[in-house]
Design brief:
The protein is an alpha/beta fold. The protein has helices at 15-30, 48-61, 73-81; strands at residues 3-7, 35-39, 66-69. Strands 1-2-3 form a three-stranded parallel beta sheet, covered by helices on one side. It is globular, with a radius of gyration of 16 Å.
Length: 111
């Protein structure tokens, strides 16, 4: 499967970037992109606009193949602080990965 790249602007995305990049992502899927890789490597001084951008991009993807790569320590720390580290496709420390059941009891219904 071919992966299309979408590069986020750095060092800090602005609210204007949110609308533009969400529209760009929607066009990529409309034009037949099978999967999109969002490169966050340039985001070195993230603020709340970066959080909003990543959240809206995830919503725009609507379950289609999408992942974030290159997130640096500052972006990871900010997403962890606001409780949205899952926007990077990772789980928070101590949290099970999505769809993973921690334990099974004999009378639990099958998922």
């Amino acid at each position: 499967m071919e992966i299309t790249r979408l590069v986020l602007p750095g060092p800090a995305p602005t609210p204007r970037d949110v609308t533009r990049l969400c529209a760009r992502l929607a066009r990529l899927y409309e034009d037949g992109a099978a999967a999109v890789e969002c490169d966050a490597g340039a985001v070195t001084a993230p603020g709340l606009a970066a959080v909003e951008l990543l959240a809206r991009l995830r919503l725009t993807a609507r379950g289609r193949p999408y992942r974030v790569t290159g997130a640096g320590p500052a972006l990871r720390a900010l997403l962890g602080l606001v409780g949205l580290v899952e926007l990077l496709g990772e789980t928070e420390e101590g949290e099970p990965a999505g769809g993973v059941q921690e334990g099974v009891e004999p009378d639990d219904p099958a998922l």
